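Sample entry follows:

_____
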Amino acid sequence: MSANVSEIWAGDGTRLDIRLMRPEDVPAVAQIYNEAIARSESTNEFEPRTREQCGDWILTGDERFSGYVAERDDQVVGWGALTRLYPRAAYDATAELSVYVSAGQRRGGIGRALSAHIVDRARALDHHLLIAFVFAHPEWLVDAVRRRGFDHCGTLPEAGIWRATLRDVMMFALRLDGRPPEPAR
């Protein structure tokens, strides 16, 4: 096992290898992301992303803002990323956390394991704050973010559209130095 790969046991007792995303992972990453778009529950995208779009978005060449994949039996079954919250240097200590799991692999602890790994990497990379944006519904998604230690710090009313309906987008934060986020004002 390479030093760049973490062996983690998923909630269902199976082994996952989690590592930095490589260019050859982009087709699987795009497929998983496009599944999420088709389900319309965890992303605010309407149209599928091409492989090139996914690669440009996630493979930035900046270690602090990187993608990670979870593999089971040499197959990418999930991915996550630390992406820039805002493209200005004043926000470099903050990253948005996104995690996606292949539809056929959900509810097995992959998302939890991948999130935990990426949060640990964010600490090691000296990030101060992680942000997660989620729709207020489905509730399982909100619960998943809370279980990972994120605190609700604000809601953007009717900021997203889902199935032709305006929906609230909730913002959650995790301070990596252990302090809770400031309440929304």
